[in-house]
Amino acid sequence: MKKILIVEDNPMNMELILDLLEFYGHNVTKAEDGIKALERLAEEKFDIILLDMQLPKMDGLEVLDRIKKNPETADVPVIAVTAHAMKGSEEHFIEMGCVDYVSKPIDIHKFRALIEKYLVEDSS
Fold first, then answer.
1. In terms of C-beta density within 10 A (0-12 exposed, 13-18 middle, 19 or more buried), how is residue 89 classed?
2. Comparing C-alpha atoms, which of 74, 99, 73, 103 is closest to residue 91?
3. Long-range contacts made by residues 11-19, C-beta under 8 angstroms, separation at least 24?
4. 76-119 tens-digit pLDDT
5. What is the distance between the alpha carbons of residues 124 and 120, in angstroms, rounded to a whole number?
6. Which residue range is the domain that position 92 belongs to?
7. Are 56 and 9 spatial neighbours (Cβ–Cβ below 8 Å)?
């Protein structure tokens, strides 16, 4: 069973993502802000991270920067989650260190394919 960290401050979005991932058979841990995300990452290892880019206390790009600078977490695939995807957003998130991104509202079919793509790549 793969372990996924969800970093999302909106309770409705968190529950939707959590329910989908658990339905797909994954072990999911929640973090409501960037600080809690870094705490969770210090406590356990994850196979993938879903990171909201608009977070309280510490924004997603700062969290991403810290993840990528830490040798313990640098290789964990991070998928950006954003409600404000504009032209050029995908390229920007990739340049910053994300492997991909998903826009809100989430298309559940594309979402599952995206998650499975990176979990399969990780296990090969």
1. middle
2. 99
3. 13/52, 13/81, 13/104, 13/106, 16/106, 17/50, 17/81, 17/106
4. 999 999 887 666 777 888 899 999 999 888 999 999 999 999 98
5. 6
6. 3-123
7. yes
Number of structural domains in the chain: 1
- The CB-side HSE value for 97 (13 A sphere, CA atoms) comes to 21
- Rounded to whole angstroms, how far apart are CA atoms 104 and 54? 12
pTM: 0.92
Contact 41, 82 (CB under 8 A): no
Structure tokens at 15: 């529950």
Give SS3 for 113. Answer: helix
Residue with structure tokens 């290892």? 45
Q: What is the Cβ-side half-sphere exposure of residue 99, based on CA atoms within 13 angstroms?
A: 19
Q: The domain that contains 45 carries what CATH number? A: 3.40.50.2300
